[in-house]
What does this fold into?
Amino acid sequence: MLYRILKFIIGVGIRLYYKEIRVNNRDNLSNGKKPMIIIANHPNTLMDAWVVGMVCNQPIYYMAKATLFDSKFKLKLLRSLKMIPINRRGEGKVEGVDNNDSLSECYKVLSEGKTLVIFPEGTSYKEKVLRELKTGTARIALETEKLNGGKLDLQVVAVGINYSQPEKFRSNILIDIDQPRGVMDHYELYLTEKKKAVNNLTNQFRERLEKVLVTTETKDEEELLDDIYKVLNTKYIHSDDKGVQRQVNELKDIKNKLDELKLVQPWRIDEIKQSIKSMDWKLEKMRIRADFLDRKFRSRLFLRQMLTSVIFILVAMPLAIFGLIHNYLQYLFTDWLVPKLSKDIEYYAPLAILVGIVLYPLTYTGLGFLAHYLFAFSWLGMIAYVLLMPLTGMFTYWFFKYLKHISYKWRYMFLMVDSKDTLQDLQEEKKRLKVLLFED
It folds into this structure.
């Protein structure tokens, strides 16, 4: 019961925190009566577990590091949420946690046809580098089959959690889900050479995760990939893909071309880096976004759009001010508190959701009762007032993003009048970058 209640509450928090959550092949997570292990990458600590739980219809069990269970209260609470603690090397042993008991529970959960989630990287870092996978997942899968005489038909599903900016409010997530696959190809070898079978299966897990993720080999490659995407990304060129799906596909295309260039024309990588550095400097100096370089400039259309925008801003301003008054202090407090609670950026998003789940409803309720007694609001009026606060809060966030976009538009229009040649040079430089990257 507690699991279902918290799953619902956390699910609401996730949907409010992230703008778009796209799930590909959700049906692959429907286990029917078959036991299932879900393996996923781990860039965003607790958020990764919450996201997997949100997209699974069936109740799921999690393997989690024992340091989360460092008190009797936490141990009891987290165990009630179907979390199985495991002591990891280098972190010491937590009192009340025995790895043999935890592994036995995993075997039992899977033998009963249930679903277990494991993050085989072990640790969580905000990066696209897929770290070395621990062999524990493969051991659990094969040992469970052995305990059931190889007749269990255990399935393993690889889930790629692709965040656009994991810690950022109103960013996006693409959850890409691979097909379920059994482990019996490695079973006979496991009966005679356990270590070799486990290593082979772990390597297979890595290959499967790489297919559903945008991965890089090093942090420097990740930074270059992100820098290229920021310059080439544009909404002003048509694409059949939309939103976060388009972003992930474009990142994969860029990554594949970089891998190809590293092998056949490595000198072009240096030229790309120089081009990116030059464009970044010019764009920052001119204070415009890179995607505006792909925008066609029609003066009449632009002026009409700007006039419409000014009218909309004037009409919408009172609603935005209402939302600002009723949400800004909570927003600032959350922004201040979260870094105090943890220095690790990987914890920012889950902590912000947890703080928001408590802070915002309490604040709205308090303001609602205050308005009821100060202004003699009816109970119906008070409820409408309370409901209006979060709605206008989301609108206000979007409104100020819109204002920023309009400021870029004005800036672009003035540059087209005063510095048209400079903008055209930048447009040509962007075209040369595309040729460097994509042309053979």
